[in-house]
Amino acid sequence: MVLVSINHPIDPEAAWQQLFARDPAATFFYAVATTGVFCRPTCASRRPLRANVRFFPTAQAAQAAGFRPCKRCRPTTAQINPLDKIRSYIEDNFDRPVPLAELGRIAGMSPFTVQRLFKREMGASPLAYQRALRASSLRGALKQGDSVTKAIYEAGFGSSSRAYEGAPLGMTPARFAQGGRGEQIAFTTARSPFGWLVVGSTHRGLCWLALGATSAEAEASLREEFPLATLYGDPSLSKLVDAAVAIVSGSAQPPTELSLDLRGTAFQLRVWQALRQIPRGQTRTYSQLAREMGIPRSTRAVARACATNRVSLFVPCHRVVGVTGSLTGYRWGVERKRKLLEAEGAANGTHIPRSA
Question: What's the total number of domains in the chain?
Fold first, then answer.
């Protein structure tokens, strides 16, 4: 179902579908010409005839058009978004099981609607989101020096076996507590038109591709990310550097056989996959990317996920820009981002704005 954004013209047909379904994710208001009243899409009043309905992006716009607020749903009263209620409740209770029925009571909707809304907006089920919160808590406790057993139980895992299920840290908790000790990461550095590149790869696939001003700086970024892993040079990985540069220059497509070892939450992984779908020579704003993912109100969360990308070029976070087209912050430097976009624009015959 198409979501309606308050920042763009309302699609009347899509809005009507949301109104008919009383979709809690709808962000518009509707007015009924025959009654002179405007409501929230979730209002429990009888559904009006389609011919009598007008849609407005804000309550103020509806009032300006001469409609008065409904006394039942109170559209001018500040209301907490049901998604925010659900998310906050999970975050406050991540250390214990939270059934969908319980979330439904909090949000005033059915368990099925809770599951559908949360997965559509957050890119993960409530259970997957809770697991990610537990993993984050466990990660933080281990970094602070807590014992593995204490960290596991305080993070809400019922047993040590639960903490190891699904490898939420990308490695076992004990190895994460040791700063990744025991991980084997092959790497190499190479010069490119955009500075020095460093690539790192585990047996599962490419886990790091970063840019630096010098070979030493590039290598240092890998060592900082995986401080206690065993790193060893592997010149054969230079083919990945060549492939990454070729993708930017337009002389090659991303290799279909490339394996990526991307470690993150379900939401981060979804954002990183969306980044890989942006064609070379094109850009998206963070809000556009969020809309394309079907989560238009998660722009900030999308931006945060872009900022944590560990594999530049192959996961092209440089193709996301500010709402005005400005080259907003980039993990490896705004000027480097400009050069990447200019190279891709030249390859496609398009122009990239030079705004900072």
Answer: 4
CA dist list (Å): 227 to 3, 176, 182, 189, 219: 43, 11, 11, 17, 12
Q: Residues 293, 340: one domain? A: yes
The CA-CA-CA angle for residues 235, 253, 238, to 5°, reads 5
Count of Cβ atoms closer than 10 Å to residue 184 Cβ: 11
91: Cα within 13 Å, side-chain hemisphere: 6
Which residues are designated catalytic? 39, 317
Range(s) of the domain holding residue 142 = 80-177
Domain-located, residue 353: no
State whether 131 and 206 are in the same domain. Answer: no
- The pLDDT tens digits for 95-108 are 778 889 999 888 88
Q: How far apart are CA 223 and CA 208, in angstroms?
A: 10
Query: What are the distances in angstroms from CA 231 to CA 47, 180, 202?
Result: 64, 11, 10
Neighbouring-strand partners of residue 190: 197
Distance CA 228, CA 250 (A): 37
Same domain, 204 and 290: no
Instruction: Give me the pLDDT at residue 122, please.
Output: 66
- Among 184, 173, 177, 185, smallest CA distance to 209 is for 185
Question: Do 92 and 42 sit in the same domain of this protein?
Answer: no
CB 2 within 8 A of CB 295: no
CA distance 244 to 247: 5
The SS3 call for residue 235 is helix
Structural domain contains residue 74: no
Q: What pLDDT digit, counting tens, does each position of 224-255 carry?
A: 888 878 899 999 988 888 888 888 877 666 66
Look at residue 45 and tell me if it is in a domain: yes
Helix/strand number for the chain, H first, E second: 15, 10
pLDDT at 121: 67
